[in-house]
Design a protein that fits this description.
With 533 residues, this protein is of the alpha+beta class. It is 42% helix and 10% strand. The chain contains 18 helices and eleven strands. The strands form four sheets. It has a four-stranded antiparallel beta sheet with strand order 4-5-6-7. The chain has a three-stranded mixed beta sheet with strand order 1-3-2. α6 runs antiparallel to α7. The longest helix is centred in the middle third of the chain and has 30 residues. The N terminus is likely disordered.
Length: 533
């Protein structure tokens, strides 16, 4: 049955996210009163029965009710491209996850924030004063931490990844085999044989589900259920290692993200231990974009199938003093990586949830409200990153690869009251406040007039490009706090590529393997590296 036909029939019997099989029948009796030209309950139920027959018999029935049915009752809309780098508060991050995915986060298949929640699924009004929760998260990934605390771990990961013994072989499956080492090393200081197979299975399953997206596929179902099977083990394992950091049993604990979250969580009201555990595995979503990014970079630098303009820009950047900003906000290498992210856009949009109009509007109440329907629906809207980054409203040459473009647009440190008045606003949309970290550094976490959080170290701003035309990491108070860490990681990747004279090529393979490398991204594993003479 086509998805559209099913939606019509399922809506008639009250089938929706969070509605059990028993609830379907009750909703049908209460709401479907057929009249002249109205809904025929028997036909609707027959359509539902026909739909159920299309689902593989080996799929767990609870999975069907909590994953497949909500998937078909979810509407995802593409929103407008922002003119300013902000998302209005009418679009919230509160529980902004399609309902069919909750079963990978909570054992009861539905949101349970009391068991821990991530800032990425939390409305601004629940984060504490002045976006406190986001600032606490950001305290672990400010740019000043990278060189002394994280860089050696990333360098070791890159050395393994680009070891000469792997030259000439398909790269992306190999990347995923090593990825979990650096992931858990950065979060908890654990790597290699100390990472149990159950923990790796959760991560790989999570990544695969996000890549394939369709819950009726066997590969989606099998990985989804593998995540659920191992989720209690994962939480207990993360809990233990968080406790080890608290107790001082973890060597060099200050080189983990969790250490900074613990130090800067204050009373824990807005970043509890349960939240820390949750962030450790919810970051599967954020960090999974590294795979999509590395594939995108290799594709564009490929000698035989890449982009000549980007290869030339890389050669020009690395032939100069690429780590010297010369008084600018960004170094030449940072500019190059930023432009790569604008072009690749590994995260295509920022997902928000929103409600039907329950109160009277110009167009009246929504039909859902007017009819008094009780079943829930999944309504989500994506504020686009890719199309905003390429909008001719923001750039005169949006399709050109031009790392210098960011030198002519404002940084987050420059968006203050004076700047916002010049663009026609009566005041800054967000009050500028600063949270001083409590981990021994002289670092403050402040924000621009648009709400974008950034760091200040020893009185020196560590800003980001606060312009709607640079959209791969989101907008305003919802901007990804891991942006600068990610940029620094890929700077190191490109430094190694340059220093080791690494080149990429697309392999001539009749049937390359298919690899899930990131959200909505399953790619042919046909890229390889080698070292030039």
């Amino acid at each position: 049955m086509e998805r559209r036909e099913f939606l019509k029939s399922a809506a008639a019997v009250g089938l929706a996210a969070g509605t059990s099989g028993a609830g379907v029948a009750a909703a049908a009796v209460a709401e479907a009163q057929p009249g002249p030209g109205g809904v025929n309950l028997a036909d609707a139920q027959a359509a539902l029965a026909q739909f159920r027959k299309t689902i593989p018999a080996n799929f767990d029935r609870i999975y069907v009710e909590n994953v497949i049915v909500p998937f078909f009752m979810t509407s995802l809309y593409e929103g407008e491209r922002p003119i300013l780098p902000m998302i209005d508060l009418n679009f919230t991050k509160e529980m902004a996850l399609p309902y069919h995915l909750w079963g990978m986060l909570y054992e009861d298949w539905k949101p349970a924030p009391n068991e821990g929640v991530t800032v990425f699924l939390q409305g601004l009004e629940k984060r504490g004063e002045n976006n406190l929760r986001k600032r606490i998260y950001f305290s672990a990934v400010t740019p000043d931490l990278y060189a002394p605390m994280y860089q050696a771990k990333v360098a070791s990961f890159l050395d393994q990844l680009l070891d000469p013994k792997f030259a000439g072989k398909p790269f992306m499956r190999h990347y995923l085999d090593y990825y979990w080492d650096v992931y858990w090393n950065l979060h908890l200081g654990v790597k290699g044989a100390d990472i149990p197979k159950e923990v790796i299975q959760v991560g790989e399953g999570f990544n695969t589900v996000l890549a394939y997206r369709n819950p009726t596929l066997p590969v989606f179902y099998e990985n989804y259920m593998a995540v659920r099977k191992n989720l209690p083990f994962l939480k207990q394992w993360v809990d233990k290692h968080v406790e080890d950091i608290v107790a001082g049993h973890t060597p060099n604990a200050e080189k983990t993200m969790v250490w900074y979250w613990l130090k800067n969580a204050g009373t824990g009201e807005h970043f509890s231990k349960k939240d820390i555990i949750f962030e450790c595995f919810h970051n599967f979503v954020a960090f999974s974009q590294w795979g999509n990014s590395i594939f995108g970079i290799m594709s564009r630098l490929s000698e035989n199938t890449g982009d000549a303009e980007i290869r030339a820009a890389f050669q020009k950047t690395m032939s100069g003093d690429y780590d010297n900003a010369n008084g600018a906000a960004y170094t030449p290498l940072e500019l190059f990586v930023m432009e790569l992210f604008r072009v690749i856009s590994p995260n295509g949009g920022s997902l928000s949830s929103f409600d039907d109009a329950h109160e009277q509007t110009f167009f009246g109440e929504s039909p859902h409200t007017q009819l008094g329907l009780t079943f829930a629906r999944g309504n989500y809207i994506s504020t686009p990153h890719t199309s905003t980054s390429f909008s001719p409203v923001h750039w005169t040459n949006p399709k050109q690869f031009d790392p210098q473009r960011y030198l002519s647009v404002p940084t987050s440190a420059e968006i203050d009251a004076e700047r916002t008045k010049k663009i026609g606003l009566a005041k800054c949309p967000f009050d500028k406040t600063t949270l001083e970290v409590q981990d021994g550094r002289k670092v403050g976490l402040t924000n621009s007039g648009f709400g974008t959080v950034f760091g200040v170290s020893d009185g020196k701003p560590m800003p980001v490009c606060d312009y709607a035309g640079f959209a791969p990491f989101g907008f305003s108070y919802r901007r990804c706090p891991g942006e600068q860490l990610t940029i620094q990681v890929f700077e190191d990747f490109l430094r190694k590529v340059w220093h080791d004279k690494i080149v990429f090529r697309q392999l001539d393979m009749p049937n390359p393997g298919r690899v899930p490398v990131g959200p909505s991204a399953v790619v042919d594993d046909n890229l390889a590296f080698s070292r030039s003479s």
